[in-house]
Amino acid sequence: MPHNGRPANIPQRIGFLLVPGFSHMAFTSALEPLRMANQLAERDLYSWSIISRDGQPVAASNHLQVAADASLRTAPELDLIIVCSGIDVQEHLDRDVLTWLHRLGTRHVPLGSVCTGGYILARAGVLNGYRCTLHWEHISSIHEALLFPEVEFSSELFVLDRDRYTCSGGVAPMDMILTLIAREHGAQLAENIAEEYLHERIRDFTERQRTPLKVRLGTSQPKLVEVVTLMEANLHEPLTLDELASHARLSRRQLERLFQRHLGCAPTRYYMDLRLARARQLLLQTEMPITDVALACGFVSPPHFTKCYHERQGRSPSEERRLRRQRLLSGSANGPQVTPVTPDTIEDTGEITQLDKVE
Predict the structure, then answer these.
(1) Domains along the chain?
(2) Higher pLDDT, 180 or 288
(3) How confident is the model at residue 89 (pLDDT cuts 50, 70, 90)?
(4) Which residues of 256-292 are buried (b: 16+ CB within 10 A; e: fewer)?
(5) Averaged pLDDT for residues 312-333
(6) Share of the chain above pLDDT 70, in %
(7) In the prediction, which pLDDT does 138 show?
(8) How many CB atoms lie within 10 A of CB 147?
(9) Which long-range contacts (CB under 8 A, 24 or more apart) does 221-224 make?
């Protein structure tokens, strides 16, 4: 973590910017190692502040409310600011927040994120020319929608690139923060913190986010793993059953038996479910036209896509989008009002004068 010329006996000041719907697990996985570092060191190595747009409590995705210590206008000087967000991140973009982050970036204040917070940093324009990561469910949507061409997205657990510290979701922030603590205060302290939390080992940043396929499938049958890997890599232009069998050096009948024995379904059914699951991600996480979503998931005919989606989800793609909008509007009606963001540039309004003291 950055020193910024701070004396060794002064705690490093970390700010957590909470965005509505943030992942409570990711947030606490980042915060708790800092608390434990202070406890084990028997002195304050770190201090932290919780920041929200307006200084009011923020509801996590599990509906727990977390009180804020400061608003954007009253935030103290900080050595690092970590953006915490979660589901429906694109619906919680706010012009004041993006402007605040953009101005911090121009002042070379170190910035970080957990879960989907990298999306907000990218929208603020502070990740251009950097490598970063965010939760794996959103990376494919960003690639498909051709967003943020100047940002290099990685599927690694976390990415430390100069003064940007971005992390995926779940408990991965604990690994990132422990890595930063090890750099700053030694590996022994980081390992002791991990032991306190029954965290078996501190994972390296190069590790992948997703559980290995053989674990997700519940079997290590090599031919099955090979075929499912091919399916996942070819959702845009699906392979035929004969092509899949040929790649695995199996007969079509052997392939069907393999899927039935280990997964309890036909390979065509499994492949279709993968494509429809990807389609649902794109419908919920992007504004891609439904026709483009259909093509991205291997459906050459939008009516066929609608029919298959309705059979699987019980509603059409357009109804899926409409229900999402209704859910978000319902949430907005019960929460604080925010300034909407258009998908263009971040306007520096000059309204957030408190930033002048953040160097």
Answers:
(1) 12-209 (3.40.50.880), 213-331 (1.10.10.60)
(2) 180
(3) confident
(4) bebbeebbeeebeebbbebbbebbbbbbbbbebebee
(5) 79
(6) 85
(7) 78
(8) 16
(9) 221/258, 221/262, 223/248, 223/250, 223/258, 224/258, 224/259, 224/262, 224/263
